[in-house]
Amino acid sequence: MTETPAPAGNPLDQFLCFSVYAAGLAFNRVYKPLLDPFGITYPQYLALVALSSRDGQTVSELGERLHLESNTLTPLIKRLEAAGLVTRTRDKQDERVVRLGLTSAGSDLAKTALGCVPGEVLKATGMDQAALERLNNSLAALGAALRDPAAR
Predict the structure, then answer these.
(1) Which of 29, 35, 96, 127 would bridge with 131, disulfide CB 3.0–4.6 Å?
(2) 62, part of any domain
(3) For a pLDDT cut of 90, what percent of the chain falls above it?
(4) Cα(first)–Cα(last) distance of the chain, in Å?
(5) Does residue 113 lie within any of the structural domains?
(6) What pTM was computed for the model?
(7) What was the pLDDT predicted at 15?
(8) Is 108 part of a structural domain of the chain?
């Protein structure tokens, strides 16, 4: 019986989890200079984009969409509110529920950022739109499978 030789190069490159992690770090480096002129971070950008698609979401709905726990999401929302981009209001039927909305400044910022950031990110990937969509669909399916304990 012969031993399989170890792959050359960085052994971490053999781990899918490391490749996804490293790609995430690279995305952060691409997004930072694109978002700095708007005065927002990448997580704040995601929250604004998610809120721009549907007004009046609850904090928990936004957390589910962004896959963030409330201890991470609450400070993010508070910073967006302090910047005048987001409003928080108590639900009229259930005071325990907090609903989120974009201010006009938040809506304008989201529209402006969505008008330029995705195209710049696409350029940075060096991929065409179809290849990027296939990769995104694969990664979304992978994430869904990993979040579903029944799938394991």
Answers:
(1) 127
(2) yes
(3) 82
(4) 32
(5) yes
(6) 0.86
(7) 93
(8) yes
- Side-chain half-sphere of 105: how many Cα atoms within 13 Å? 11
Cα–Cα distances in angstroms (integers) from residue 105 to residues 29, 81, 150, in the given order: 26, 11, 42
Residue found under tokens 């990937």? 125
What are the backbone angles phi and psi of residue 86, rounded to the nearest 5°?
Answer: -135, 145
Which of 12-16, 84-88, 119-123 has the lowest average pLDDT?
A: 12-16
CATH of the domain at 35: 1.10.10.10
Q: Does the residue 72 lie in any domain?
A: yes
Tell me, what amino acid is at 50? A
Mean pLDDT of the chain: 92
93: containing domain: 30-119
- Distance from C-alpha of 83 to C-alpha of 35, rounded to nearest angstrom: 15
Task: Report the alpha-carbon distance of residue 46 to residue 110 in Å, rounded.
Answer: 9
- Burial, 117: exposed, middle or buried (Cβ in 10 Å; 0-12, 13-18, 19+)? middle
- Distance, in Å, from the CA atom of 81 to the CA atom of 87, rounded to the nearest integer, reads 6
